[in-house]
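Design request, tokens follow.
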């Protein structure tokens, strides 16, 4: 009784609509942004230099540089920086020396020059990195081209961090041509991979402002956190022309134990032209995908479980713009009807979805939002879902719990369609009998995007958009919109953009 009184008081004093999210009992309610530790500012250490005209017997000074990156990395101490002059370095780079808190070991491209770490002609043995961090931590890599590591038998990784090593910073790198070149969908390679296969997680990770493009990853991913990986931020990266998954967060079963990635933030990335999904969150715990541009991939964002092992729990999808994908914009749960490992406690808030399902499967159209088998406790609020003519706004079925949904703006150039248990529903009133409450949602109002001409598509809101202020407060809505601008300008707007 007392709890109810407090709740009502909170509602009346803030004058906001109070929605209480669906939440599995006993689940801890973590915050969107994970605490980040580890300083990025570098204290003055020694600068070493590497040049393709250098000599590993030299002293590594600017005037007398080393020849190889690996040599330089053996002489550093915490706080030191290795500057690499322009040119192509064909070597597998390994970090044998750790930095320390506030004193990273930094490998950095010399300013104004182009330093390339290339695997051209090198053999890939098993699962092997061109750049490997498995025996050092507090490592920063800044500004390199990391490329052309290819195999038809081994599984290359452009950069791999494993063996429980923490505090990795990857900034401003270009990763490309990391290719598994055997039969499609048999190899398993990664542009950048954080891999935790022991109880000690690989943690405290920042991957920012990198480009990963033109990689053939087989069943792997362009940027991945697999297994025991925690406290990671993947932000402002651009990923395109890739196989399988753009950004993959997935649990794994290794060494006799299931290991789950946790506390990750995937924010302000752009992912396009990736075959299977832009972002895939399978079997993790507390993973936020916020303010990403996702288009022309297979599925936009999928959140589910690792079949036979674990559901994905607490996936928080906010402020994303997702358009022109071949399949669904957002898929929740699992496509494996026999599996109990779907998604639970999903938050789908303030996303803008537009004309996905461009190439529906032969089995029929999916939803723009497709709540599949075992999509449990899904909260669907403040989204703009603009469907193509034959498209379905939301698909759900009785193998999942009823989604909790409201303040969504549905619109289509064709026939209004939702689907529940395989039956098409053409009116919002009937849809409300399956998905509650939806009383503030609309289905006849054009959201008023700035431009829907495909060549100059802009899914931000025009000044007279009726999506303005039609949203509601809901737990886990971030402070900012897709542009990093304030989310709370008057009442919350629907969709990824807040009009300022
Ligand atoms: Ca507003
Ligand atoms: Ca805005």
């Amino acid at each position: 009784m007392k709890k109810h009184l407090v709740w009502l008081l909170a509602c009346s004093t803030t004058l906001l609509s109070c929605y209480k999210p669906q939440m599995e009992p006993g689940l801890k309610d973590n915050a969107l942004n994970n605490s980040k530790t580890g300083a990025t500012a570098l204290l003055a250490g020694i600068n070493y230099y590497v040049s393709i005209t250098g000599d590993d017997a030299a002293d590594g000074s600017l005037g007398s540089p080393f020849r190889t990156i690996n040599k330089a990395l053996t002489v550093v101490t915490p706080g030191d920086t290795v500057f690499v002059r322009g040119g192509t370095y064909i070597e597998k780079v390994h970090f044998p020396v750790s930095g320390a808190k506030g004193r990273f070991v930094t490998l950095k491209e010399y300013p104004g020059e182009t330093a390339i770490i290339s695997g051209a002609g090198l053999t890939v043995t098993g699962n092997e990195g061109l750049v490997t961090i498995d025996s050092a931590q507090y490592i920063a890599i800044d500004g390199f081209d990391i490329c052309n590591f290819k195999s038809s038998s081994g599984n290359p990784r452009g950069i791999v961090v494993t063996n429980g090593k923490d505090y990795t910073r990857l900034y401003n790198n270009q990763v490309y041509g990391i290719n598994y070149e055997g039969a499609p969908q048999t190899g398993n390679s990664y542009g950048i991979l954080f891999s935790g296969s022991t109880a000690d997680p690989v943690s405290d990770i920042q991957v920012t402002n990198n480009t990963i493009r033109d990689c053939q990853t087989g069943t792997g991913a362009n940027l991945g956190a697999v297994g025991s990986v925690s406290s990671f931020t993947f932000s402002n990266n651009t990923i395109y022309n890739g196989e399988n998954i753009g950004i993959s967060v997935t649990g794994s079963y290794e060494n006799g134990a299931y290991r789950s990635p946790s506390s990750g933030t995937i924010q302000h990335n752009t992912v396009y032209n990736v075959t299977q999904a832009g972002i895939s969150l399978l079997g993790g715990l507390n993973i936020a995908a916020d303010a990403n541009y996702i288009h022309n991939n297979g599925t936009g964002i999928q959140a589910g479980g690792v079949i036979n092992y674990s559901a994905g729990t607490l996936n928080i999808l906010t402020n994303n713009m997702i358009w022109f994908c071949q399949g669904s914009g957002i898929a929740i749960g699992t496509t494996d009807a026999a599996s109990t490992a779907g998604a639970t406690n999903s938050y789908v808030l303030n996303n803008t979805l537009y004309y996905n399902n461009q190439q529906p499967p032969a089995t029929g159209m999916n939803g723009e939002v497709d709540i599949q088998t075992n999509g449990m406790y899904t909260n669907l609020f403040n989204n703009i879902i603009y469907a193509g003519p034959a498209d379905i706004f939301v698909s759900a079925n009785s193998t999942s719990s009823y989604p909790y949904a409201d303040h969504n703006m549905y619109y289509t150039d064709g026939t209004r369609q939702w689907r529940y248990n395989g039956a098409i529903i053409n009116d919002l009133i009937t849809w409300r009998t399956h998905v509650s409450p939806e009383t503030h949602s609309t289905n006849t109002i054009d959201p008023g995007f700035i431009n829907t001409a495909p060549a100059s598509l802009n899914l931000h809101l025009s000044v007279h958009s009726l999506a303005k202020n039609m949203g509601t407060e809901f737990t886990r809505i971030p402070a900012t919109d897709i542009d990093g601008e304030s989310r709370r300008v008057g009442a919350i707007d629907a969709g990824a953009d807040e009009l300022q």
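Comment from the thread starter after seeing the answer: thanks! The domain at 87-461 is CATH 2.160.20 (Pectate Lyase C-like).
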